[in-house]
Design goal:
About 60% of the residues lie in helices and about 5% in strands. About 45% of the residues are buried. Strand 4 and strand 5 form a beta hairpin. The protein has about 475 residues and is mainly alpha-helical. The radius of gyration is 24 Å and the shape is globular. It has a five-stranded mixed beta sheet with strand order 2-1-3-5-4, with helices on one face. The protein is built from 18 helices and five strands.
Length: about 475
């Protein structure tokens, strides 16, 4: 147990170090990150905070963002938080699995993914959702259940993403009622209470804000549905497959493809999970706990696969974290077989598979860090053109894409109405003016000076400035 804990610390340290090396701490804040950070005056002006967003990420930022506007300091803080979350997420499993080494191997598998490494120092909710879910399931399954851990883990999940909180809680509630191993001495009622308490505690800020800002829970859900493009019965598996190597947001996913080597994770993961479940059953050990981990992973992934009509690689992080545990059991079973039978072919295949996996993931992290560094630099270039042509705060921007981060970079605001009146400038990229501006398009084209933005990473930026 002690050696497994030390190895888990080593994995956490390696995870933080590797992320810092591959993703520069100087990487400018992205669109979603600016929305969260601009809740604090040092990162003003404040940008619109739409219905789907929650207050979980701003809470993570508060210790630094409340007094400093340093991107490097903020990312360093978030990197430390991500490492701590990785430790807290997997540590409860040390008392559950038969071989404690499974825990640090699982943490290593999850931490090796390019998505996890890229977002480690980011102001985004998904890693914390994943770790909250992993910790909650581990505390739920412990021989001596840790009810405070169950409630805290689920509260974190729900505070970050309420829909994920519901998805994680549902199979835990069913397990507390249906799994015979969890019904000992009436403790299933205590487990049920812990799950319900965590869910309600995490949802309370969202519900209060819904009443104060959106006129009620139903109105907020309706508005959030509109912002997300309308949740409906879909099958987004292909979109998620396409997003395995990016982009960070695949919306829409038309015209994109995935490189075949990148699919290795979707081949390796189910193979190792199956081997893990088979190895436990062959050793005549109960597989119920691992199956619950698989069930919660499936429940966490299901809304993104069957309700959300677009994809982002980070959406599946909770599922990957929970599936990493049975996958680690399978990986250790292969290692044990290669060692006891002195099978060189098995060892060689395993080593090549892991090296290939790490190589592909490291390359993807580096690639996306470079892309984002250059792409986010476009916002500064556009802001420079705006300043050169007389657009200074206070100002209001409108456009057909990326208006929020561009406005924030330029010190302007974005109107929260769908049909803004009297913007200071219009930001266009490649496409025509947005739908609400079509009746103004001729007027703008005729009377508003048009200035192309030079030397951008993404081509086609044009600024129309109000005379």
């Amino acid at each position: 147990m002690a050696s497994a804990q030390r190895m888990l610390w080593i994995v956490v340290g390696g995870f933080c170090l590797l992320s810092a090396v591959l993703v520069p701490l100087t990487l400018p804040l992205g669109w979603d990150e600016l929305v969260y950070a601009s809740r604090f005056g040092s990162y003003g002006p404040a940008t619109p905070f739409s219905a789907p967003r929650t207050r979980g990420v701003p809470l993570l930022l508060a210790p630094v963002a409340s007094w400093s506007d340093s991107t490097v300091l903020l990312r360093a803080w978030l990197l430390l938080l991500a490492g701590g979350a990785l430790w807290l997420g997997f540590r409860p499993w040390l008392r559950i699995v038969h071989r404690p080494a499974t825990v640090w191997v699982a943490a290593g598998l999850y931490g090796s993914l390019w998505i996890t490494l890229f977002y480690a120092g980011s102001a985004m909710p998904n890693h914390y959702t994943a770790m909250g879910a992993t910790a909650a399931v581990g505390c739920f399954l412990a021989p001596r259940p840790r009810y405070a851990g169950v409630a805290s883990g689920l509260a974190v999940v729900t505070l970050m993403r309420p829909n994920d909180g519901v998805a994680v809680a549902a199979p835990l509630l069913l397990a507390a009622v249906l799994m015979p191993a969890l019904r000992d001495h009436g403790r299933h009622w205590e487990r049920l209470s812990a799950v319900a308490a965590g869910l309600m505690a995490g949802a309370l800020p969202w519900v209060v804000e819904a009443e104060v800002r959106f006129g009620g829970v139903r109105n907020r859900l309706t508005e959030a549905d509109e912002v997300q493009g309308g949740l409906r019965a879909v099958f987004s598996l292909r979109a998620h497959l396409t997003a395995l190597d990016g982009p960070l947001l695949c919306r829409p996913c038309t015209g994109d493809s995935v490189r075949l080597p990148v699919t290795e994770w979707w081949v390796l993961l189910p193979l190792l999970v199956g081997l893990g479940l088979w190895a436990e059953r062959r050793a005549r050990r109960s597989t119920a706990r691992l199956w619950l981990s698989v069930a919660v992973a499936g429940a966490a992934a299901a809304p993104y696969l069957f309700l959300v009509p677009y994809a982002a690689p980070r959406f599946l992080l909770p599922a990957y974290a929970l599936l990493a545990l049975p996958a680690a059991v399978g990986l250790l079973a292969v290692v044990h077989r290669a060692r006891t039978r002195r099978s060189l072919p098995t060892a060689a295949v395993l080593i090549l598979a892991l090296l290939g996996h790490w190589g592909i993931q490291a390359d993807l992290v580096r690639t996306h860090a470079g892309i984002q560094q250059r792409a986010r630099g476009d916002w500064n270039r556009i802001a420079s053109v705006l300043r050169e042509h007389g657009v200074h705060p206070p100002c209001v921007l409108a456009g057909n894409t990326s208006t929020i981060p561009i406005a924030h970079t330029a010190g302007c605001t974005v109107t929260e109405t769908s049909t803004p009146e009297h913007p200071s400038a219009l930001i266009l990229r490649e496409r025509n003016p947005p739908h609400w501006a079509r009746h103004w398009a001729r007027h703008w084209a005729r009377h508003w000076p048009r200035f192309p933005v030079p030397d951008t990473y993404n081509p086609g930026w044009t600024v129309l400035v109000r005379p």
